Each structure stands twice: as C-alpha cells, then as structure tokens.
Amino acid sequence: MNPSGDGEFEVRVLGPTEVRVRDETFRVERALERALLVRLALARGHGVPDETLAADLWGEGQVDKPTERLRVLIYRLRKALGAHAAAVHRAPNGYALKGRLADLLTVEDELLAIRAARRSGQPGRICAAAAEALAQWRGPAFADVRETPYGAVEAARLESLHLDLLTDRLEAELALGTIAVSEVDQLARRNPLNERLVGLSVVALYRAGRQAEALARVSDLRRALADQLGIDPSPTTLELELRLLRQDPSLLVRDVRPVDEAAEPGTSMIGRGPEVTALLDRLRRPAVVTLTGAPGVGKTRLAREVANLVAQPGRPVVWLDLTRLSRGDAVLPSLAAATQVDAAGNELLPLCVARLAGALLVLDGAEHVLDPIADLLMAIADQGERVSVLITSQRPVRVSAEEVRPLGPLSRADAIRLFQERCGLGPDDDAEVADTICTAVDRYPLAIELAAGLTRTLTVEQIAQRIEYRLRLLVGGARSAGGRHSSLRTAIDWSCSLLDPLGQALLHRVAVFAGGFTLEAAEEVASGNEPPIEAADIAPLLADLHDRSLITISVEPGGHRFGLLESIRDYALEGLVADGNEIDVRRRQADWCAELAARTQRYGGADHELLVGELSREEANLRSAVQWSLETPGEAHRVLAIAAPTWWYWWSHGRLIVEARDWLHRALAIEEEAPPRDRAVALRATASLTRNSGDAVGALALGERALGIFRSLGDDLGCTSTLVGLCISNLALAKFETALELGFQASELAEFVGEPRLLGTAMNVTGGALRGLGRLEEAEERFQAAVELWRRIDDRRGQAGTLGNLGLVYQRTGDLGRARERLRDALQLYREIDLTEGIIDIVELVAGLEVAAGRYRSALRILTVAGIQRLRLGAPLIIADELEARDLVEAAARSALGAEADVVVAASRDDSLTQLADELLGSLSG
Questions:
Q1: Are 392 and 420 part of one and the same domain?
Q2: Where's the Bacterial transcriptional activator domain (predicted)?
Q3: Does 369 lie in the same domain as 481?
Q4: N or C: which end of the chain has fewer CB within 10 A?
Q5: pLDDT above 60 (res 875)
Q6: pLDDT, tens digit, 9 for 90 and up, residues 715-772
C-alpha cells in the first residue's frame, strides 16, 4: 500500500493522535513513536533534519547519538504503521511523512474562509466556517504528545485558536440573531478578561431583555481588568457601555418575512450524504453557495434534494431553471414570476429581493447568465435580506459573498449502489462488473444512470464490454431530466458550447495527454495550429476551463497538474480529429516526451528521486506517445527517442521491463534507416532490458551490435556504456574471464573520457568479475574504490549496488560484521530512493547472514518474499555467482527446517517487501 500516491494517509492531532487511511482508523500506541509521527506530520511533507527532530523530541542536547536513536525510532514507527510504513521515508534533508494533518488543514482552510467572510460582511459564512473548524476538535489538541518540547508549544497555540474560533462563531450567531445566551454567558464567565467574549455576552443579554445584567457585566469587566491587569477597558468596550445606556436600537436584530414557494422533489437519491448534510447546515442561515462540477456530476440532482428537504418543515423555496433562458435579460422577469411580484422598471429587483426574505433561492444552471445573477446577489447583499441562495453552475459567479463547493465523483461504494438500484439488482449482484462500468464513466451519477438504463436491452456484462464507447452508448435519459441530461454527449455539448473558439481548441488539444499535464507541457504541445493559440494565452485559457469544471487541477510535488475526466477526454479527442489537428498535436506531444526522456537519462545522482518522480507522473503520457508512434506510419523513430533514454526507469519498475523491451524491438525493426547513433543507443537500451528480463544471450547479441556501431562512429562514451553492459551480460552467463577483460576496457575508456559515473559502474562490474573468479581481495579493492567514487559524486543508486556487492564479498570471506554493515547501508540507500529491485537484491543477501546466524526461518521468509516480488516484477536474479549464493542459502535453510520449510513459505507469501525491508533495517542497526 502506498499512502503517498493518493493523499489518503491522514494524521489527526486535535484530540488523541490518530491515523486514518481510507476507512481505517488506528493509533500509534507508544508515546515516542507517536510524538515522532506528529512532528513529521507538522512538517507537511518536507524533510526534518535529524538535529531538529532530536531537539523537538528529547530537548536540545539531551540525547547521545541522536542519529542512531532516530534510526531505531523510525524503524519502530514504521513497524507500528504496518502496511502503511512507506508513509515515513528519508527525504534529501531528513525524515519526512507522506501524509496530511487532515483536521489541522481543515481548520486552516476555514480560518481563511472566516477572514474572507469577515471582509465581505457575511456572518452566516463566518458561522458555518467556524462551526466546521470547531468540529475538528475531538478533545484537547496534542493531547498525548504534550510532554515533548514541541508538543507543549503547539498545544498552547491551538487552545488559544479554539477559543478564538468559539468567539468567531458566537459573534456571527449574534449578528444573525441566532445566538444562545447561556452558551456565550458561560464562556464569558470562564474567560472574564476576554473583552471580546464579554462584549458578546453583554449584547446577548441585552437582546434577551436583561439590560441590568448586561450593564453589570460591563462593570465586572472594568473591575477585573483594573484589579488583575492594571488597565482600563478598550474603547470598544466603553462604546458598548454607552450604547447600552442609550438603548441603541442597532443592538437589536430585524424580523424576516416568508414566501410560499417550494422546489419539486426529485427521485430517490443515492450517495452525497455528507454533502446534503453540510448544505442543509450551511443554508439554515443566509449564505450564497455555488455547486460547481463537470457535466453529469449531479449538481442539479443534489440541489433538488437539498431544496426538497429545506421545504419540508415549511420554509419557502424558490427554484429557477436558468437553462431554459437564452438571454441574461430574462433572469429578472423569471424571478418576478416565481416570486409573484407584479412590478416594472427600477422597482422590480428590490421588490423581488424583499419577497425572498427568509427563503431559499435555487438558481439551476447559471453558467451562461452569470452577470445578471451577480447583480441579483449584490442586490440581496445591499438590501440586507436574510436569503439563502444555492446555485448550480459550471463556474463560480465570483461575488464576494459566494462560497464555492466543487462536486466530485461518487464514492466507489455509492456508485456501485446507484447502478445496482437503478438496474434493479441486489447489493451482491454483479458488483465487480458494476464497478468496472462506474469507473469507466468516472463514477458520475448521470452516466451511471444512463448506463443502468441500457439494461432494458443489454446485460450488465455486455454493457461493461462496450463501455469504452461511452459517448455513443450513454443516451436515452428520462424525459423528465431535461435536454441537458438526456445523454452523456448532450451534457458535455451544453458545457462546451459556451466556450469561445480558442477555449474549445485548447480543450481538444490537451486531450492528447493521457496522464494529465503541466502548464509548460500544454504551452509546448497545444500552441499553434488553427485557430492559432499563443503560448502566453494558454494559462488564462486553462484557468477558464477549470472554472467551467472541464479540466481538473491537482497539486503535486512538481507543481500544479491539469487533467481531464475520461468522458470529457473522449469528447475532446473527437473534436481534435474534427479540427484536423490530431497528427500535428500528437507529434508535438511525442517530441515533448522525447525532450523529457533526454533530460532524465542521467539517473542515479543526487536528483535521482526527482527524476523518478517526474517520469512517474508522466508515465501514462510516455506510454501513450510510444503507442501512437508505433501505430502511425513514419513515426516509429520517436519511440527510439522516448524509450531508449528512459530504459532505466522501465527497468526499475520491473513490471514494465518486457513491455519497454518490446517497444524498442518493434521500433528497431521498423526504423532500419534510423541515424546510426540513435540506433546504437536504442540497441544498447534494448540489450539492458533484455538482459534484466532474463535473456542474457539475446542481450549479448544486441550489445555487440551496438558496440560495433559506436566504434564505427568513434563514440568513446557510447562504447564505454556498451562495454559495461556486455560485461554484465557475461557475468550473467558465468563467463567471468571475458567479463573481466570487458570491465578493464570499460574502466580505461571511462577514465579517458572523464565520465565518473561510467567509471564507477565499470569498476563495480569489474569487481563482480573478480568476485566470480574467486579473487576476493582484488574484488574488495575494486568495490571499495567504486564506493568512494559514488560518494564523491553523490550517486546513491551506484553506492547502494556496490555496497551490496561488498556485502557478498565479506560473506564469502567470513567477515560477517562488515557484511552486516555494508548490507545495512545499502538497504538504507535503496529504501531512500525507493528502488524495488535494489531492495530485493539486498534482502536476499541478508538471508545469507540469517543462515550464518542459524535463523533459518527468517532466511527462508526473506527469500520467499523477495522471490515473489521478482516474479511480480518480471525481474529475475541474473548474475551467476549471486544466483548461486542465493540457491545455497535457500538449500541450507530448507535442509535445516525440513518439513517445516513449506509451512514457512506458505506463511510468508503475503508479507510486504517494504515492511520486511524496514524490519531488517532495524535488526541490522541493532
């Protein structure tokens, strides 16, 4: 499980510390591990230096060997997190947590909403935001980490914030006339020096007809301030006292008037329970809430559900279907008809607004008439009427009072339940197939209901088989749903028809990105063509598309990333073909992928994790560009430019080794006339992937072809890399003498060209050949020199691999202490850069130490977990003497365990490699 990928690993600190991952909630029981978890969470994804962590956990200079203590503590924390251990990782500048402080982030978001609402004079919004923030507290903040130096400080800060939020809510309720006198009075008594709170209590008492008590409370405050602090009341308090004495009428609140109008209820609703609850709570008081979201997400359906529930106790509701209006000047007459106002000219708008006092006004489908809607909202604000407004729109109205609530897809469970109910299925019927269908339509309610409607003529399995043709398939919605909701295509058509030509063209062009895209990528790929789009115009055009809910935005380590839902992407790709621009745009995207590949081909250095992260984010785009290039005549040369420089990425993600190898084989077969150097680079990359998928003989042949081309070109750098690859292929074939000669050649050439990374690799493989020949002292010398070189150039991947090789040398010489140290350091480095195949290599070597210590069950468990991972990745162990060592260790363990061996294997099959690696790190560090 990888909690960093989807942001679902949450730490909550406003009460006893708890961790939530999806629907699972658990505690870290030991105090120090819990304090470490919270301190890492406070860094919000950034690394925390070891010295800072030690000071915050134990106090400045209060612990010996803080780095070693932290390493043990990190191991214990990962163990406590179990399947979620990967959330804690080593960042370049310290330890970090891939997770979020969910409750604290919610509070901070609501604080921003409170400040914005205060600037725009919206007490209802303040009240709702403060209530939402206060709801995050489950008890005293940092309740179980207060004994740490940092915990005490944070707890005090958050206690003060909690009181401020309570005061914000009570102040807003006072402005709305809904305050509970007893609550504010009790809070003021507990905080007798808090002038703001006491002032609220005074006004609440006055409004309740208790003027004498209100005046007495001001006198008590004056006396307490003088006695305890030696100060006078603030000017605000003195002014309040004068207003009480004058019986200022502005201290009271106005009455409201009703309107007898309600929205019609819709069909039964499935899902959206939290949204309904939140909206009902928010709309109890004056507010302007806009539901935004992509076509078919269910904005109208949710608004109808809320309107129906609001109307049930008798509150008036006015519903305007704005999609029926073709012009903005029709909004006000429609509102007048709905509110039964008979007037004209300048009197019409004020009378309509007055008639709405106390009501809920629902404005459905406002995206094409935003200006008159903004005028209406400003009139409501100017007249001070207590009206709640619920708007559905592709994009916000953008008035100061507006609270925008984006609507996303249904949860997986709700989507399946909606499909099953609309099909008349039971909860256990066709759940997996239903999930496939719902996922294909982005779990959007409209598309799910349209798909369910097809069961009149198709089976659920037949729908699933055809769902990729979603735009043509999903038609025939209910007549009562209205034209926009009659088909998936119609819903998207309505949204896209409101775009100008440049907006439509950009939407079509960015659809070539299969895995999302950055602004820079869009500027490079989507500019030009007809209609011409300037690169400088793309940012505002993307902002407009996002406002209209046609593209998504997520915040990732590389910055903001844009994306399209699959249904909208299908629609946009059809538009790209119709525009006549598909070939040009796809070529530019493939060229952009090739530039990315060239930029990321130097792996293993200090920026290795950044390169892996960038390629991981763009993996879907790289694969899409490769597939298009292979399938389009005359474009296969682009595959060489994309896949060859990134071969190391496909190898390190073993599940893709065979696929990437086959891409290059196909492209080389098509592009026989490719430039010689491009062909040689591709042959070398194909050799590496072929070897690492288990075919050393095939890799040898490919490598020799590449070497011949590089030599004919006089390309010493290319020759060096290829000689290294040929050396590894010979190591895999146990041809150690040949491998040694190739290793020496590669080392000499690497020194000549002055390429330290290649020199380190050449020294490492030469050491492997010496080890295979039994020349262990010479192998150790080579490996040690390589490690020093890797350290100088800060290449953690090379360092880890060579340390692993040293570990095997020391095992063979019987120096198990040094073997243990080298393998520990190698495993730590591989965990830091998250290289799965490297982790597998090292844990298999650790199994040898376990056998030497007589821990046969542990050894066999390690080999079982590692072996299963190799099978899953398609990445077999290829170096002959390493394979022999592994087989000997397994044989020794099985021999010692006898019949129990099969029991150990069976019990270990489902164990996590990550958890195993962390356990071994802890034991190796002990």
A1: no
A2: 102-245
A3: no
A4: C
A5: yes
A6: 999 999 999 999 999 999 999 999 999 999 999 999 999 999 999 999 999 999 999 9
Q: Is 267 a member of any domain? A: no
Question: With contact defined as beta carbons under 8 Å apart, do 81 and 28 qualify?
Answer: yes
Instruction: Please state, in angstroms and as integers, the Cα–Cα distance from residue 790 to each residue in 640, 650, 822, following that order.
Output: 29, 23, 14
Domain identity same for 12 and 130: yes
What's the angle, vertex CA 595, arms to CA 590 and CA 601, rounded to 5?
120
Task: For residue 386, give the CATH number of its domain.
Answer: 3.40.50.300
Which residues, in sequence order, are bridge partners of residue 487? 475
In our burial notation (b when 16+ CB lie closer than 10 A, e otherwise), range 879-898 reads bbbbeebbeebbebbbebbe
Are 518 and 559 in contact by the 8 Å Cβ rule? The answer is: yes
The span from the CA of 534 to the CA of 508, in Å, is 15
CA R_g for the chain? 34
Among the ranges given (52-56, 117-121, 156-160, 286-290), the one the predictor scored with the smallest mean pLDDT = 117-121
Query: 3-state DSSP call for residue 578?
Result: helix
pLDDT digits (tens, 9 = 90+) for 428-443: 777 888 888 888 888 8
Helix or strand (DSSP H, E) at 914 = helix 913-925
Q: How many CB atoms lie within 10 A of CB 532?
A: 10
Enter the tokens of residue 670: 């098509």
List b or e across 747-770, with b for residues whose CB sees 16 or more CB atoms inside 10 angstroms. bebbeeeebebbbbbbbbbbbbbb
- Are residues 5 and 152 part of one domain? yes
- Residue 146 resides in a domain: yes
Whether residue 431 contacts residue 416, with contact meaning beta carbons closer than 8 Å, is answered with yes
Which of 7, 67, 11, 71 is CA-nearest to residue 35?
11
| Distances in whole angstroms, Cα of residue 838 to Cα of each of 491, 524, 795 | 49, 36, 14
pLDDT the model gives residue 701: 96
Domain closes at, from 126, 151, 178: 178
CA angle in degrees (0–180, nearest 5) for 117-234-179: 45
- From first CA to last CA, the distance across the chain in angstroms is 27
Across the chain, mean pLDDT equals 85
- Give the H/E segment covering residue 289: strand 287-292
Provide the β-strand partners of residue 405.
291
Q: What does the block give as tokens for 113?
A: 């909403």
Residue range 457-489, pLDDT digits in tens: 677 788 777 776 655 555 444 433 444 444 667
Domain range for 139 is: 1-178
* 673 and 636 Cβ atoms separated by less than 8 Å: no
Q: What residues have CB less than 8 Å from 756, skipping those under 6 apart?
A: 789, 792, 793
